[in-house]
UniProtKB/TrEMBL annotation, chain A:
<dbReference type="InterPro" id="IPR038561">
    <property type="entry name" value="SoxD_sf"/>
</dbReference>
<protein>
    <submittedName>
        <fullName>Sarcosine oxidase subunit delta</fullName>
    </submittedName>
</protein>
<dbReference type="Pfam" id="PF04267">
    <property type="entry name" value="SoxD"/>
</dbReference>
<dbReference type="GO" id="GO:0008115">
    <property type="term" value="F:sarcosine oxidase activity"/>
</dbReference>
<dbReference type="GO" id="GO:0046653">
    <property type="term" value="P:tetrahydrofolate metabolic process"/>
</dbReference>
<dbReference type="InterPro" id="IPR006279">
    <property type="entry name" value="SoxD"/>
</dbReference>
Automatic annotation (TrEMBL), chain B:
<protein>
    <submittedName>
        <fullName>Sarcosine oxidase subunit gamma</fullName>
    </submittedName>
</protein>
<dbReference type="InterPro" id="IPR006280">
    <property type="entry name" value="SoxG_het"/>
</dbReference>
<dbReference type="GO" id="GO:0008115">
    <property type="term" value="F:sarcosine oxidase activity"/>
</dbReference>
<dbReference type="Pfam" id="PF04268">
    <property type="entry name" value="SoxG"/>
</dbReference>
<dbReference type="GO" id="GO:1901053">
    <property type="term" value="P:sarcosine catabolic process"/>
</dbReference>
<dbReference type="InterPro" id="IPR007375">
    <property type="entry name" value="SoxG"/>
</dbReference>
<dbReference type="InterPro" id="IPR027266">
    <property type="entry name" value="TrmE/GcvT-like"/>
</dbReference>
Length: 101, 186
């Protein structure tokens, strides 16, 4: 079982309490009625689905209920770090640092 | 028209009359309580604390009691407050004059009291949290999972817990706790 650090509960909790909530840092276009269909499709449907380091939103749905952001390695499934929602994309700590689970 | 008591409908409480456990765990249904789910912004926490007569805890996983009421930290802007029936929690909160959301969930939840030296082991049957006294001291509380259902767990003493669970899930929670109680006695 993975342990995930919730930045609001300030504690490592079981993965069972969490839900994945898609890619993080996707900004809604400010002029959404003016953009073209292709631009809308890009914003709405297309995701990077990166192999390796990826930034995701997660929700501590069976805990504090808050959304937060996580940097995760999709190859090893390790959570490299988590941080509160609303913060800009955070640099991942150098390898060997951070959460190694 | 109210005549003899024979015709008066009485409310059947979820888990009314049930009891269970094992040689190391005692399980019983808690008395009916009034409960609210409270959402407050950080700047209005003091006003709501004063209105309710209980300090809303702002540290994760902590609870506080006062004025016959208990407030549990659920999230950064969310609390579960419970107390004796018909003491008007929603009305008390409204007197604060501050912006908040107080939802009466008295009958959405019911509670199971788990006590005895095996109570942490019984709860850990279905709950992934570390319930050692270091990680989950007396007064600690958390919304978490118990088997397939969501619960709010509060440690009331070294070997006693209150398990708040939605009423429609209470049979399941009680059944799994009973199994956990048996396992804890092995």
């Amino acid at each position: 079982m993975l342990l995930i650090h919730c930045p609001y509960c300030e504690e490592d909790r079981s993965e069972l309490e969490f839900r994945w909530a898609g890619e993080a840092h996707i900004a809604r276009p400010e002029n959404i009625s003016a953009i073209s269909d292709e631009e809308f499709a890009e914003f709405f449907f297309l995701r990077n689905n990166e192999k390796g380091l990826t930034y995701e939103r997660w929700r501590h749905i069976h805990g504090c209920g808050r959304f937060f952001n996580a940097a995760r390695d999709t190859i090893s499934d390790k959570f490299l770090m988590t941080y509160k929602a609303g913060l800009p994309k955070q640099p991942v700590p150098a390898s060997g640092e951070g959460e190694t689970r | 028209m109210v005549d003899s008591g024979a015709n008066v409908a009485t409310r059947t409480l979820p888990l009314s009359g049930v009891h269970g456990g094992s040689s190391v765990v005692r399980l019983e249904a808690a008395a009916p309580a009034e409960r609210i789910n409270l959402r407050v912004r950080a700047e209005d926490v003091a006003a709501l604390s004063a209105a309710l007569g209980v300090d809303l805890p702002v540290k994760p996983k902590t609870s506080s009691s006062g004025n016959g009421r208990t407030a549990l930290w659920i999230g950064p802007d969310e609390w579960l407050v419970f107390g004796d029936v018909r003491t008007g929690l929603v009305a008390s909160a409204a007197k604060s004059g501050a912006l908040h959301s107080a939802t009466d969930v008295s009958h959405r939840n019911t509670a199971i009291l788990v006590s005895g030296p095996g109570s942490a082991a019984a709860i850990n049957t279905g709950c992934p949290q570390d319930l050692s006294l270091d990680a989950f001291p007396i007064g600690a509380c958390s919304r978490t999972l118990f088997g397939k259902v969501e619960i709010v767990l509060l440690r009331t003493a070294e070997d006693a817990f209150r398990v708040e669970v939605w009423r429609s899930f209470s049979d399941y929670a009680f059944g799994l706790l009973s199994e956990g109680a048996r396992d804890a006695a092995l």
